Amino acid sequence: MGFPGEILHPGSLRSKAEGSYLVHGGPHETDFVFSLVRIVADYFLRSRGLNFPRMMILFRLAHKGQCSVSDISHHMQISAPGASQLLDKLVEVGYVSRAENNDDRRMRNIEITSKGLALVQELKKEHQQKLITLMEAVPLQEREQLRKSLETLNRILRSMQ
Question: Average pLDDT in the 108-131 region?
Answer without folding.
Answer: 89
